[in-house]
Write a structure and sequence with these properties.
Layout: E1 2-6, H1 9-26, E2 31-34, H2 40-52, E3 62-65, E4 67-69, H3 80-87, E5 99-100, H4 109-122, E6 128-131, E7 153-156, H5 159-165, E8 178-181, H6 184-188, E9 192-197, H7 203-211, E10 229-234
Parallel strand pairs: 1-10, 2-3, 2-6, 3-5, 6-9, 9-10
Antiparallel strand pairs: 4-8, 7-8
The structure holds 2-amino-2-deoxy-6-O-phosphono-alpha-D-glucopyranose.
The site of 2-amino-2-deoxy-6-O-phosphono-alpha-D-glucopyranose (GLP) has 14 residues, from helix 5.
Length: about 240
């Protein structure tokens, strides 16, 4: 594991974007595993800047997202599909046909999970998986207690996750209770992982996930076992690391 601590979120976002830039230079058709949440937004802004400056070409890149709320259509402004278009895809030259996100409004959720697994497999796996981390240690929407062995699956969101994500909704009642998420197995199969965390409120979970025991009650702790993990932290999120 390589831990890189930045003095500011700006510095962190730039460093994060450079990982994608380097990958796409050497592998223009790379499969990018992308994440939602507020943490990656700054990094996505840097990717957009680099694209506009002619430094990155996404024309052959593929994107697979970690998760989607069950019950929200792709046009719902709270859906992760909308989030990705708004914060990245519509600003770069990635082909929308190459952007994959689980569909949260299918009748057969289990079949959708199997379809998503087939998509990832057909792309040859993920080259670089970007991850944020929830306050309870969730990655994607793999909540505490979820097994480390699952592929894409439906989840009931933890109370803490619902409260944390309520800030994006009109009220907490509007936050979906369920989601489809790539499993820990799928995340761990990525060839490389970039975990990003910022802010003092993440310092405790960052310490527990990276320095504590590997335990499904802290899903992010499994990342300690990944052979190619880079962790980008700002100084506040790194505050509890020795
Ligand atoms: C959501 C997403 C996660 C993300 C987490 C943290 O629950 N499913 O992928 O890591 O939020 O979000 P934030 O970066 O806003 O703290």
């Amino acid at each position: 594991m390589e831990i890189v601590i930045s003095n500011s979120a700006d510095e962190l976002n730039l460093k994060g974007a450079e990982y994608f830039e380097r990958l796409l230079l050497t592998k223009p058709d790379a499969v990018l595993g992308l994440a939602t949440g507020s943490t990656p937004i700054g990094l996505y802004n840097e990717l957009i800047k680099k694209y506009k400056a002619g430094k990155i070409d996404f024309s052959r890149a593929k994107a697979v997202n970690l998760d989607e709320y069950i019950g929200l259509s792709q046009s719902d402004i709270q859906s992760y599909s909308y989030f990705m278009r708004q914060n990245l895809f519509s600003h770069i030259n990635i082909d929308p046909a190459n952007c994959h996100i689980p569909n949260g409004i299918v009748d057969d959720i289990d079949e959708e999970c199997r379809r998503y697994e087939r998509v990832i497999k057909s792309l040859g796996g993920i080259d670089l998986q970007l991850l944020g981390i929830g306050h309870d240690g969730h990655i994607g929407f793999n909540e505490p207690g979820d097994s480390f062995e699952k592929g894409t699956h439906p989840v009931e969101l933890a109370r803490e996750t619902i409260s944390a994500n309520a800030r994006f909704f009109e009220s907490i009642e509007k936050v979906p209770r369920r989601a489809i998420t790539m499993g820990i197995k799928g995340i761990m199969n990525a060839k490389s992982i970039l975990l990003v965390a910022t802010g003092a409120d993440k310092a405790s979970i960052v310490r527990r996930a990276l320095m504590g025991p590997i335990d499904p009650r802290i899903p992010g702790s499994v990342l300690q076992l990944h052979p190619n993990l880079t962790v980008l932290l700002d100084i506040s999120a790194a505050g509890e690391l020795q």
